[in-house]
Every structure is written in C-alpha cells, then in structure tokens.
Design brief:
By secondary structure, the chain is α+β, with helices and mostly antiparallel strands. It folds into two domains: 161 residues, Roll (Sulfate adenylyltransferase), CATH 3.10.400; 53 residues, no CATH class. The protein contains six helices and twelve strands. The longest helix has 16 residues. About 12% of the residues have low confidence.
C-alpha cells in the first residue's frame, strides 16, 4: 500500500472533513517548460489507449493516465502516482517506544511535541498507520486553474486566522492550526491556497503555473 503525507495543518483539515482535495505536481519534465506542453486527453484508460494504437507498457494497462503534447511535436503519457479507487495510508511524524507502541506528533499541541524525538513521516511504515484515505478521482490541470470551490475543498476558507505576518518575499506565516471557517470574499480562498503553495514549493513554483494532479480524496476506515 502506498503512503501519502500532509503538513500538520492539512492533516488537521483532512481529519476534520474540510479538506477533500489535494494537488501534487505532475511530472518534472513537463514542468520544466509547463507553457510548452498542452493536455491532449484528460485522464483516460490506458488499456483503451493501447487498443487505439498508443505504445503502452503492459504494466500500465490497468491504470489511467493523461496524454500531453510538447510544442505540437512529440507526445507523452503521464500516469498519476495515485490511481482512482486506490486506498493510501497517511504518513505522520511518529515515535516508536521501547515497548513497541507508537506515538504521533500530531496528537500533541503545536510546539509541545519535542520534535527531535519524532521520525520523519517519509519513513513511516504501513503497520504504524492509523488513518487511511481513498482516491476518488484524479485529473490533470494547471495550478492557476483552481477555482473558489476547489480552494475550499483544499481546506482554505479565508486567511484571517491562518496568518500572523507577511515575510519580505510575500509569503505568509501560518500559525493557527485549528480549522476555521471565516466568511470572507471568495477570491481570498484562492489567494490563501496559493500563498500556502508558495510556502511549501517556493514562489517560483507558483509563478511557473505548473501542471498538477488534482486528487479528490475521502477518509476511509480499514479493518486490521
């Protein structure tokens, strides 16, 4: 089973049922020159694409993918890392005790967890996971195509309670970790999402308007 990580803020919003979408960068080659690539066909069955004459590895036949074209020249089929219908375990910063119990950083109040004791979520094994999600759908789009509804589904519903100050590079500092739903103008939700994207990926990533996978996600319970 594959794993997926969220920041502490996004983890809180997902668990609260506020975050139902997540965006991940599509492909390094495509996003070196995102403006020179166009989407020819949205997420499609690669088995059908193979029957239509596309060269598809047999290992991809059961997957979905998107077809891109570079400068009206060659084509590239890109397969999203997470597929519709796939169940993922959520990776968290964790600590394994001497008696084989697991402690989780996100259970502690912000700043009170003793960060140095916790292992990065990248190394969290599936057996330590306590939460799972389902990939309901996936599609490819440019980052700046996000609309108000999707910004809300990403967990952003205004910024009044999210920011404490603005850095010199234009990125806001997030402090409040409690899900809030302030009633502000719709475009503020999009600005809030993009500011958080800059915080995670850098200002240049936002300005380049990369191609991203837009995943629709849902919390599910897994019996052990």
């Amino acid at each position: 089973m594959k794993g997926i990580t969220f920041t502490e803020l996004m983890h809180a919003y997902f668990m609260a049922g506020i975050k139902t979408n997540t965006r991940r960068v599509v492909d390094k080659e495509i996003n070196r020159e995102p403006d020179n690539w166009r989407l020819i066909d949205q997420v499609v069955s690669l088995e059908n694409a193979k029957e239509e004459g596309w060269h598809i590895p047999d290992s991809w036949k059961s997957k979905v993918g998107a077809i891109f074209q570079y400068k009206d020249a060659y084509f590239k089929i890109v397969v999203p890392h997470y597929q519709p219908g796939e169940v993922l375990y959520i990776k968290e910063p964790f600590f394994k005790t001497s008696d084989d119990r697991y402690l989780y950083k996100f259970d502690f109040p912000l700043g009170c967890s003793g960060d140095s004791k916790f292992t990065s979520p990248r190394f969290m094994p599936e057996r330590a996971a306590r939460f799972h999600l389902l990939i309901k759908s996936v599609r490819a789009e440019r980052l700046m195509m996000i609309n108000n509804a999707d910004a809300k589904s990403e967990g952003f519903k205004g910024w009044a309670d999210y920011y404490s100050k603005k850095r010199k590079d234009g990125v806001y500092i997030f402090q409040n970790m409690s899900p809030q739903e302030p009633n502000y103008a719709e475009d503020v939700n999009i600005a809030s999402f993009l500011s958080f994207w800059k915080l995670l990926h850098g200002k240049e990533s936002c300005e380049s308007n990369p191609w991203v996978w837009r995943y629709e996600i849902e919390k599910v319970a897994i019996e052990r």
